[in-house]
Amino acid sequence: MWLGSVMVTSTGAPSGALRVQDPMTGNQTTSEGMAYGMLIAVYMSDKPTFDAFWQYVQAHMSNGLMSWQITSGGAPNGNGGVNSAADADEDMAWALVMADKQWPGGTYLTGAKSILSNIKSQEVNGSNNIKDGNFANAGSSHPDYAAPDYYKTFATVSGDTSWSAVYTGEYSQLQGAQNATSGLIPDAIGQNTFGFDACRAPWRVGVDFVWSASANAKTFVTPMANYFVQYAAQNGGPNSIKIPITPLSGAAGTNVSGAITGPAAVAAMVSSANQSFIDASWTYLYSVVLNDLTNPPNYFSSTMGLLSMLTLGGDFVDYTNPPQ
């Protein structure tokens, strides 16, 4: 098992299902973790595990979207546990679209269309920004929830061309939140820390450049990539890049994590001049992910690190428009 038996378990799941658990938070399961598991499974061509994850997700739906936080015993964690988390819902929908291409003939596409419809009706505000979840008011506070290249495929799959407005709206928010010096964005709008939310943006937006050479992605990612590459050169290599970073203009971070080493390397793919940084990051990231699977297990570092490795290795692709 690519995430190891410590993080993937049938305990607390319906018969035949599997869940991704977080050993650092009482073995709870989040919709985020299930979405990452589904993404990794579909790109690892692991249909049995993908189906077992999807079964668990379907058992924990509320208003057509997965409840974001489930205890190890299988119940929503408090009243807020039944709310959704929009970033996870986007990743689940994407994983299902990819599963339809990996293993045609099933019901994956039907599931994807249902989630996409519920994202649009419950999690997109009037400014065409992704809200935190279906519980949120009209505002949008997490710019890293933007998954720009998904939206082009979502529009095609769903037949809903208004996803193009979400693409535009999300880039507007991302660029508006970006620090002029470092290119970093905050975990939440109005804050001044690049931490365990914002760290996903270099991966999510970097994918838009890798897949489609998006000019928007290049504009957003380039200053951030330059910051990471320069910081590593001045401080001993990619292992020196840590999070959280406060202030956004740049500083020494606190924690080593695959959740920053990986996305920083993906961002650096914006330029071939960064190849030595990417190579060094891959070598270091490989060791971080292996360590964080067991010693002690770190769910977020290992999953984000592995997703980044799939991207760096050319395996995280859009199967609806595969590279030639």
Main sheet strand line-up: 1-2
Number of strands: 6
In percent, how helical is the residue content? 40-55%
Low-confidence stretches: none
> Which class of secondary structure composition applies to the elements?
mainly alpha
**Biggest sheet character:** 2 strands, antiparallel
Shape: globular
- The percentage of residues in β strands lies in under 5%
Head-to-tail CA distance between termini: 30 Å
Radius of gyration: 18 Å
Please specify the SSE layout and strand pairing.
Blueprint: H1 4-7, E1 8-9, E2 19-20, E3 29-30, H2 31-43, H3 47-59, E4 61-62, E5 65-66, E6 69-70, H4 86-102, H5 108-122, H6 148-158, H7 163-177, H8 201-212, H9 215-235, H10 258-268, H11 275-294, H12 299-312
Antiparallel strand pairs: 1-2, 3-6, 4-5
Helix pairs in contact: 2-3, 2-4, 2-12, 4-5, 6-7, 8-9, 8-10, 9-10, 10-11, 10-12, 11-12
Tell me what the structure shows.
- This protein has 324 residues and is mainly α.
- Helix content is 51%, strand content 4%.
- A hairpin with a 2-residue loop joins β4 (61-62) and β5.
- The model has no long low-confidence stretch (mean pLDDT 95).
Question: What is the structure about, briefly put?
Answer:
51% of the residues lie in helices and 4% in strands. It is mainly alpha-helical and 324 residues long.
Task: List its traits.
324 residues; mainly alpha; two-stranded antiparallel ribbon; globular
